[in-house]
Amino acid sequence: MEVISEMSGYSTRTLKRFFHIYLSSPPRLSVFPSEKVNLLIDGTYFGKDLCLIVYRDNTIKFTQLYRLSNGEKYVEMKEDLENLLALGVQIESITCDGHPSLLKAINKVCKDIQLQRCLIHIQRMCRIWLSSRPKSEAGIELRKIISTVHLIQTEVDKQNWIINLIDWHKRYENTLIRKLNEETGRYGHHKWTRHYRDKRHAKFISSIIQ
Fold first, then answer.
1. Cα separations in angstroms, 206 against 18, 177, 195, 202, 203
2. Strands of 51-57's sheet, edge to edge?
3. What percent of the chain has pLDDT over 90?
4. 179 SS3 class
5. Which of 68, 84, 98, 136 is 20 to 30 Å from the Cα of 112, by its Cα?
6. Residues facing residue 54 across a β-bridge
7. Report field, pTM of the whole predicted structure over 0.90
8. How far is CA 130 from the centre of its chain?
9. Rounded to an integer, what distance in angstroms lies between the CA atom of residue 4 and that of residue 6?
10. Distances (CA, A) of 208 to 21, 63, 141
11. How far apart are CA 80 and CA 172, in angstroms?
12. pLDDT at residue 108, rounded to an integer
């Protein structure tokens, strides 16, 4: 209390009064039962040991639930989803960043709902893998394609984006496979595909594309 007093300029007596007022009537989170909910779930970290997990109802633009924890934990997120369902929130779809613990919780509690990966998170990870300034022609073109993923709004947009990605892959496939084989000593298209899709090889793929 003395440290807070020095930092804020308020006396400890005044601070105790503030805390008493706040703790005597803490804010209550109200859950609104609703149908066909598109639930947005995301965790934000404030330092290493404080994580705010938000469950936002995108249908009515309202935060249905939030949790303060020290991480994105399967048991806690499973409990949150179960509570939302028990309180009458009918989840039709979930948009998230693809955290493994969250995906496990979703698959356990509401596996029949539509699940999609947040486009912004996809874009962010791709930029990390590609780096901010790829040096090769393949890397530069792929980064341009990735930079438009957040503009996908319709099925037509999605199909056009996929076509651009396939065209890119066809143009640079042989070059990328050759570089992969030179690095690993392995040969064959199926081996390239496996490495390309595996997140554990993200840094390796990044170095190839650069």
1. 52, 14, 12, 6, 5
2. 62-69, 51-57, 34-45, 89-96, 114-117
3. 42
4. helix
5. 68
6. 42, 66
7. no
8. 18
9. 5
10. 59, 42, 14
11. 45
12. 95
Confidence of residue 185 (pLDDT cuts 50, 70, 90): low
Residue type, 96: C
CB atoms inside a 10 Å sphere around CB 82? 14
Q: Which residues in 26-43 are b (16+ Cβ under 10 Å) and which e?
A: eeeeebeeeeebbbbbbb
Q: Classify the C-alpha dihedral 145-151-152-156 as positive or negative.
A: negative
Please say if the pLDDT value at position 206 is more than 70.
no
Looking at the predicted structure, is the pLDDT value of residue 205 above 50?
A: no
Q: Residue ranges of the domains in the chain?
A: 1-27, 34-117, 120-209
Given a contact cutoff of 8 angstroms between Cβ atoms, the answer to whether 137 and 144 are in contact is no
pLDDT in tens, 79-100: 999 999 999 999 999 999 889 9
What pLDDT score was predicted for residue 204? 42
In CATH terms, 34-117 corresponds, of 3.40.630.30, 3.40.50.920, 1.20.140.10, 3.30.420.10, to 3.30.420.10
- In 62-156, where do the E strands start and end? 62-69, 89-96, 114-117
User: What is the Cα gyration radius of the chain?
Assistant: 23
